[in-house]
Design a protein that fits this description.
Strand content of chain A: 15-25%
CATH class of chain A: Alpha Beta
Strand order of the largest sheet of chain A: 3-4-2-5-1-6-7-8
Order of helices and strands of chain B: EHEEHEEEEHEEEHHHHHHHHHHHHH
Number of domains of chain A: 1
Shape of chain B: globular
Number of domains of chain B: 3
Helix content of chain A: 40-55%
CATH superfamily of chain A: P-loop containing nucleotide triphosphate hydrolases
Largest interface: A-B, 18 and 14 residues
Number of strands of chain B: 10
Order of helices and strands of chain A: EHEHHHEEHHEHEHEHEHHHH
Number of helices of chain A: 13
Largest sheet of chain B: 10 strands, antiparallel
CATH architecture of chain A: 3-Layer(aba) Sandwich
Distance between the termini of chain B: 60 Å
Number of strands of chain A: 8
CATH topology of chain A: Rossmann fold
CATH class of the largest domain in chain B: Mainly Beta
Shape of chain A: globular
Oligomer: heterodimer
CATH architecture of the largest domain in chain B: Beta Barrel
Largest sheet of chain A: 8 strands, mixed
Chain lengths: 248, 511
Amino acid sequence: MSVIAVYNIKGGVGKTATSVNLSYLSACQGNRTLLCDMDSQGSATYYFRIRPAKKFNTRKLLKGGKHIDRNIRGTDYPGLDLLPADFSYRNIDIALDDLKKSRQRISKILKPLREEYDHIFLDCPPNVTLLSENIFHAADRILVPLIPTTLSHLALGQLLDFLKEIGQDRGKVLVFFSMVEKRKKMHGEMMRLLRDEPGVLPCGIPFLADVEKMGIYRQPVAAMLPNSAAAESYRVLWDAICGKLERP
Amino acid sequence: MQELQQDTRRLPESVEMGSLMDALADSFTVEIEGKRSSVAAWYDTFDWRLYNHGYLLRHGDRHWHLLDRGSGETLVTSRAGTGRKRVFARDLPAGRLRALLEPVLDVRALLLLVTLQSEETRIRVLNRDRKTTVFVEFSRQQVRGTDTVLRLVRLVPVRGYDKPLRAVRAFFDEHGITGQVPLFYDFEQGLRAVGRAPGDYSSRFAIRLDPDLTARQAAITIYRHLLDTMLANEEGILRDLDTEFLHDFRVAIRRTRAGLAQMKKVLPADITATMKEEFAYLGRITGPVRDLDVYLLKERDYRARLPELLQEGLGTFFTDLAEQRRVEQKKLVRALRSPRYRQIVTTWDEYLRSDDPTPSAQGDVPVIDLARRIIRRRFKRIMKDGRAIDDSSPDEHLHRLRIQGKKLRYSLEFFRSLFPEDEVGSVIRQLKRLQNNLGDFNDLSVQQEMLARYLRGLRPGSRRNMELAAAIGGLLTNLFHEQQRVRKRFARTFSRFGSRKNVALFRKLFY
């Protein structure tokens, strides 16, 4: 059983596409899988054509237990469930701040779900917030999609420093390259530079139109176009992650 | 995941599947997926070890699926090419599946019970976002080799979409499709179609005797059961599916022989005499293969008894045994296909059905009296012989006592249903302990004799035979030491069997 947070300080790096496709692949292998959409924009929720119940909001999320149970939805794929995001999540930090042990709340909420599922994916919003701190606390692995550019590299450094500051194990972090464009020289150079760093997976998701089109057909690319290059690159990535999950 | 309630319904014969699908498409927004074919092959051992253990095992789509019979949950899915007709634990893919099943199967083979070929059409019921809210699976399943066809519709709920599920259920209710079927209906119906039923064979001897029966009626019931066991195992022996068919067959022969000897005046003297001879013959023709099986099954154990240096030599030994077994198995098959065998079985079968009026000396005695007398006599004999054994007694005396123990065990099992279950159970448990000790002692002597014989038959000269001889020598030493240890335990084991409490229990039940 593992909780995998897909996270980056920066937005628009392919977090949601990663969460959606990896959770789908996990379920395909027979793992009971839950994807928690933690981003108030609700993109993962949208990709699976799910609408959260009108009564569901931040308050219910933070109460946990049956309030979450009631709001988990089955996707169109066997073994894959989703906890939808609500727009009220945009103010989640304020709500968290009012609670006792405000840094461990998400961890506590996930505890009963750990029994029920083999893998839990957290699709996280960008930025460093109280919510991200909660998520780092709860996650067994922090999966960071990294566009191989200088600024992204800088952001990764910031994340690692922050983890150190809050006393989290930096070994939890797994980095892979996202939105890779072969023809860009800088991408190649950055990847060479980072290749041997600890926690960097030797695989990347290319920048492909098929991934972007997920917004139109609203399915994981691995389900819609199982023979595409995009689907194949997610499968390679998932295999690499599974290899790391077995070794805690 | 929430345990989703299973809802599978049988389509009545009057309902045409195609028009039902059309009606569903008219009432809901749906997406119809293409037709898919699949094959489900169900496996278990001949004596239903998986079923009795709460498992079901299905092969299909190049995977094994181990299922929980109670909840329907899939416990393990494991990739493995095509299924075969016979699969041993060692043939299963390494991993969790094999680890779970190995101790359950032991030496028994998984056999193909029944295959269902299925054509499925899956319809997804969608909401306004074209999100799937219910899966409706129509299937037409043919039981291979029979005319039986199952036509089913399965409603698979999606978590959090209860309302559409209720609407789909109502749709089927309104169309008169209300007959919900139990979990694993396909498996059960498939079995029924091929004439099997879960638990239809067990190697345990378990019959219920009515205390009002005469000795003769009881004997006939017992012999009938034993003959049925033999007949049930015939095919497995001929096809050489696993070693236990022959084993169970031989146990039934031995029990029959014990019955004929102990209840000797219950049937007319001539039939008892003939059958005693015939069953002795059956014992003889089935002996060689079983003896070899016993050694072949010990391969792993024998290797473990030797240092690595000597293990190499054993390879030749077991190759020789396997070759001998091949030859003996052929002879056995020939014997079981011979007119003589057929005739023995048919004669006995017909006799047991015949209601023979010929009077016999003990036939009309109430069974309970007969049972008590036989058990009492056997018990006295064991106590007398066992007490006479001390550390200096020859091995021969222990062997004799083992035979006595076996006879007592058979008679206790024949008649156990006539006595209070927990008390007779306790008596049998005590006896079992003694038998284990004596059995181990005997097995170890027989093995040593066999190895010594094998050693004498080896021609010196080749390197290979030298290594072989060294391995056999090592084994002999090891087995000898173990036999001494077993012998040392005899005195304590026997005194426990002869304890005041146990003797009192025997007296209470059988005197």
